[in-house]
Amino acid sequence: MRAARLTGWRQPLEIGRAPDPVCPRDGVVLEVLACGICRSDWHVWTGGDPVDLPHIPGHEYCGVVVETGPETRCWRVGDRVIAPFILACGACPDCQAGQQTICATQVLPGFTCDGAYAERVAVAHADANLTRLPEGMDPALAAALGCRVTTAWHALTGRAALRPGEWLGIWGGGGVGIAALMLGRAMGARVALADVVPEKLAQARALGAEVVIDARGDDPTGAMREATGGGVHLSVEALGVTTTTENALTSCRKLGRMVQVGMPAGDHLRMDLPWDAVYSGQLAIYGTRGMPAHRYPSLLDFLTATDLDLSPMIARRVGLSDATAELELFDRAAPPGVAVITDFTA
């Protein structure tokens, strides 16, 4: 198969032939229809989230089943499917309790095994993780459901319980931030979004953000608190860096909630944060990572019921050979929108 492999930190991905993946006994092999290029892939590419080399990145994918393992019962060759980036075993006590994202034996394509910057990818524990691709859904959008949209949905509904009429503050207008904005608006929240890229602020405004904050200013948290009448009820940190985490905490009103969506890595694994704001404001802090596979129906039903069009998230459809250039964009303030690999021959 054709694949893009990481052979050294920050080195151009090597485009060429790679062995076809071996089908897990309880899994499937997919022909990849689309794979998103995510900031988490950048952490792998830079070595901030190190993996064994050589390695095929890519964790945000959808595809067509081309092979099934002997222990797979629910899926057949030809099925079009999507999957969360955390492939849980489905059998341990945490999985049985519905908490698949903390499964102790989880498999993560693109992290703990080869991912989907390739024509094919292996998916373990298929019966516990796969969801049928909705009829007519654009594969590029379906790929985004594997990480950015699902992570935002679980943060807002499964962890921090956003309610209609509340102020939602989002720090970072990348893929997960824009997903949180669109989902939050559809849930009836009022949304404020902060970023340092003017084009991202313009996109947020166009997508319904009531307040946009240029975080290059002297006091962005003060600006957000003032614009929202004392602070947001729920803040989302969507980058995984110290500055935005501090801003997310200090932009909350008293008794507010903050959910850490961005993945801290590299220099940001340990952060010096204003814990006096947590204490005096009596804030609640949530961590979140991915979404349990069993919650896909709630998300898909919501998208259908609200007729929410998430396609504005998709900014660029690229070829496999463009992946390195897209990863390099995360070294600085990246342009608006999500890039998705849709052509694995280019």
TrEMBL record:
It comes from the Bacteria. Pfam families: ADH_N (PF08240), ADH_zinc_N (PF00107). Keywords: Oxidoreductase. Its EC number is 1.1.1.1. Residues 8-341 form the Enoyl reductase (ER) domain. InterPro entries: ADH-like_C, ADH-like_N, ER, GroES-like_sf, NAD(P)-bd_dom_sf, Zn_alcohol_dh. GO terms for molecular function: alcohol dehydrogenase (NAD+) activity. Gene3D superfamilies: Medium-chain alcohol dehydrogenases, catalytic domain. The keyword Oxidoreductase applies. It is an enzyme of class 1 (oxidoreductase). This is Alcohol dehydrogenase. It comes from Roseicyclus elongatus DSM 19469.
